[in-house]
Amino acid sequence: METPGTWALLLVLLLLVLLTLALPRTRGHLPPGPTPLPLLGNLLQLRPGALYPGLLRLSKKYGPMFTVYLGPWRRVVVLVGHEAVQEALEGQAEAFSGRGMLATLDGTFDGHGVFFSNGERWRQLRRCTMLALRDLGMGKREGEELIQAEAQCLVEAFQGMEGRPFDPSLLLAQATSNIICSLTLGLRFPYEDEDFQALVRAAGGTVLGVSSRWGQTYEMFSRLLKHLPGPHTQLLGYLSVLATFAVQQVQRHKESLDSSAPPCDVVDAFLLKMAKEQHDPSTELTDKNLLMTVIYLLFAGTVTVSTTVRYTLLLLLKYPRVQERVREELIRELGASHAPGLRDRARLPYTDAVLHEAQRLLALVPMGVPRALTRTTCFRGYTLPQGTEVFPLLGSVLHDPEVFEQPEEFNPDRFLDADGRFQKQEAFLPFSLGKRVCLGEGLARAELFLLFTTLLQAFSLDSPCPPGALSLQPAVSGLFNIPPAFQLQVRPH
Ligand code: HEM
């Protein structure tokens, strides 16, 4: 006799069959790849939780360009290694400048805001956000002073921990969050502020959620999973903390907007431009686009740089000789009291090399952020239909053995020439490239340099456990590589 469970199972199976029939059919002339199974796509080759290693394994068989199915419906062209990624993202920049899907976040952002939008909407939002950040001092002296001031606050917070081992994650994320909050909202918070801590933790929870094994499963089967209960409710909880905060802040700005004064932050700049364009039917400067841009900036500004600085500190604990060399260079070039500035970078080639090598080794966004073809495009002998999703595997560029000898080793000297001068590497692309290159690259590079050098000038860092026992393996690896938690002790010089 049929039980309700049997009916439910039959219903799910029927649903799956129907959804499989909706497989993408416009094949164009796509690169080869493993044959997808009905309902599962390439699940046998690509396990959630190990998506990136699975894609690297497939590239050994299929080469630098191949097609996979993430679940039954999502067809993706994967690009592996420096040559293929550069040829696409830079060589055919316009065609590869569309944004692909991030299933875990798409429900919330719904194609709005600078990160998730496409076409004319994206062009307007990117221009408006870039101009606002530039006018507020990004890449100029004002921006530098803002970061230097925050770096000093961070030093004081670390001083308060003297002698005791502590996990630096929260403080680092609060420092970088304060920088983006100042630029975007004109606000800075004390580190003890519990609401601020909750906001920063929500950004951290979001990054863990999208990168988790479940997050990767959701990328494959979102059409089905979005209708079922599961861990995405927790992710939505974190996002709603960020969203509630952003809504309040935008409202506060609307109430106090002074159209005769120059804008004090990104939201002001956006609102002023919105007012100017209110009668233009083609404007994309809308409330929803503003809100989604703010949420993304808060998220990216909080998690990316702090995670990278944290990983760099972990490397210095693991390799004490590298820490000594950085400190020797800082003290020799700047002394103990000259606050590091961006102009000092040229005098600190070894420190700069350590920062580059840490970013390279971490490969913060190993699979890149999904792109999509803005038009049907011929590439390397294949015809990729408009809308085809593309994963440019940035980790495979940063660890490309054709460019970086023994890519899995930490070796800052690869960024130095024979005379000890800093030397660029063309394949150093943690911020991606092309028209959709990271919008915060300039800000992120300035933050990384100033936060790291200020901390290292102030303190020696020790690990409570032997360096050999420290692991560098990511605690979570998905959309982001998240380094493991660790404790450190600081001693002032
Ligand atoms: C170490 C720090 C960072 C890294 C490694 C990083 C990396 C990336 C990557 C890989 C992308 C995707 C680009 C593509 O589509 O190919 C991206 C996009 C973006 N990033 Fe960053 N990012 C960092 C910091 C920041 C910061 C601090 C901000 C805040 C201003 C930011 C804002 C953005 C925005 C708005 C986009 C979307 C650009 C667009 O779609 O036009 N990022 N970032």
From TrEMBL:
It holds the Pfam family p450. InterPro entries: Cyt_P450 (IPR001128), Cyt_P450_CS (IPR017972), Cyt_P450_E_grp-I (IPR002401), Cyt_P450_E_grp-I_CYP2A-like (IPR008067), Cyt_P450_sf (IPR036396), Cytochrome_P450_fam2 (IPR050182). PROSITE patterns: CYTOCHROME_P450. It comes from the Eukaryota. GO terms for molecular function: arachidonate epoxygenase activity; heme binding; hydro-lyase activity; iron ion binding; oxidoreductase activity, acting on paired donors, with incorporation or reduction of molecular oxygen, reduced flavin or flavoprotein as one donor, and incorporation of one atom of oxygen; thromboxane-A synthase activity. Its cofactor is heme. It is found in: Endoplasmic reticulum membrane; Microsome membrane. Heme binds at residue 438. It catalyses: an organic molecule + reduced [NADPH--hemoprotein reductase] + O2 = an alcohol + oxidized [NADPH--hemoprotein reductase] + H2O + H(+). Coiled coil: none annotated. It is a peripheral membrane protein. The chain crosses the membrane at residues 290-317. Its EC number is 1.14.14.1. One of its GO terms (cellular component) is endoplasmic reticulum membrane. It is an enzyme of class 1 (oxidoreductase). GO terms for biological process: epoxygenase P450 pathway; prostaglandin metabolic process; retinoic acid metabolic process; xenobiotic metabolic process. Residues 1-22 form the signal peptide. Cytochromes P450 are a group of heme-thiolate monooxygenases. PANTHER family: CYTOCHROME P450 2S1, CYTOCHROME P450 508A4-RELATED. Belongs to the cytochrome P450 family. This is Cytochrome P450. It comes from Mustela putorius furo.
